Amino acid sequence: MNTINKSIRIGLLRSKLELKQFLRQRESVVFTLFFPVILLFIFGSVFQDTIAPGVTFSQYFVAGMVASGLVNTGFQQLAITIPMERDDGTLKRLRGTPMSVTSYFIGKALLVTILMIIQTVLLLFFGTVLFGLNLPTDMNSWWTFTWLIILGSACSTVLGIAFSVVPKTGRGASAVVSPIVIILQFFSGVFFVFTSLPTWMQQFAALFPLKWLTQGMRSVFLPDDFASQEVAGNWEIGRTALVLFIWLLVGLVLAIKTFKWSRE
């Protein structure tokens, strides 16, 4: 029990330092927190067509961007920053301290959670004020939104840590990770209406968490009758939770088994 408490306490302290370091990097702040908002302004202003009764593309896009934001703040950021920390010796120095892998993971997870909350609030605010996004009016929808955020954020975090061993260098991490995220966004119904994509794209996207996150967020922010426009004709909430939970377990196992403090 003392070991667990120590790991949690060190993880909390590490999260404070992680947040301070993040805020000092203006490029990371802009790209992580405000880039999704910028995309919302661009796509929401350009594409204003009605895709279903009472649903505009802007509203559809906001729901997708909230889900995509979890991937940006979790998977993409961690899969890029961890290789950079590994290359510049940060992780090697941390290995010589009382910090365990668990504490390091806790620090990263809390950083992702804080950034995710800020980004989500920004997207919901501008989506509501400028693009007519309808916030949920019943507790069931808010409950769905809450567990989607928690499960999606956790899944994105562990997958980002697990994937951080793939880039060979910190300098090349962005070139490896960013295209993957962009492709998944196009395939998963973020930038386009999902049912308008080719069938093979839909089937490919269904293998990954982002498709299910975007569909789940649509169930929260779009009218109930829009569910008939989905591939299965309903929101598939239970399947969404199952897929995300499976990816969470897979990511957690891979993160624990493959994490490296250094390249050696």
UniProtKB/TrEMBL annotation:
Alphabetized InterPro entries for the sequence: ABC2_TM (IPR013525), ABC2_TM_bact-type (IPR047817), ABC_2_transport (IPR000412), Nod_factor_ABC_transporter (IPR051784)
| GO BP term, pick one | response to antibiotic
Q: Which GO terms describe its cellular component?
A: ATP-binding cassette (ABC) transporter complex
Question: Listed GO molecular functions?
Answer: ABC-type transporter activity
Species this protein is from: Candidatus Nanopelagicus hibericus
Q: Which residues form the ABC transmembrane type-2 domain?
A: 27-262
User: Where found?
Assistant: Membrane
UniProt entry tagged with the keyword Cytoplasm: no
Q: Which PROSITE patterns match?
A: ABC_TM2
The signal peptide stretch is none
Membrane topology is: Multi-pass membrane protein
Keyword annotations: Antibiotic resistance, Membrane, Transmembrane, Transmembrane helix
Membrane-traversing stretches = 29-48, 60-84, 105-133, 145-166, 173-194, 237-256
The entry's protein name is ABC-2 type transport system permease protein
